[in-house]
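User: Before I run my own analysis I want an independent prediction to cross-check against. Here's the chain; please return only the structure tokens and, at the end, one sentence I can use as a sanity check.
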Amino acid sequence: MKQNSIQYLLEKYREGTLNDEERTELERLTHKDEVVAAASRRATGIIRRRVSLTIAAVMVAGAGAFAVLPHSQEPLMAEAKVLPAPVVETQLAASPQEVEAVVAPTVETHPVAPLRKRARTKAATRVKSDPVVVCNNQCEADSVISDIRKFLSV
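Assistant: Structure tokens:
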């Protein structure tokens, strides 16, 4: 009899002629509350497991990235080094014919008017200081190149 009443109530549900009393009877016979509660428990468990796995994966990826990156305590800096002037080798023993063969170039001199010095204003005065090229691992390539050009042009 239970099976016949479930089929009868489901048929009325499909047709849309089910009233409130019949709806509660159908829910009682099909154990709707228990089924929905069990499904929600399973869904909650699945969601909880996925969230915990996602958090664990992010933590492992972060630890891997931290292990791979360099651990420098001080920032990386470019430094300017003064290179020694190249040594030009000269011939110590020159033959007398070579000495006579060397002709001194002629240099003409012309009088030049002295340059007038302009008076400098405070705004035009420029304090000349040694340029400093500083960079850490967060510099952009263009800014480093422009700093190096400024350094070399001085």
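Sanity check: Helices lie at 2-15, 20-30, 32-68, 96-101, 141-153.
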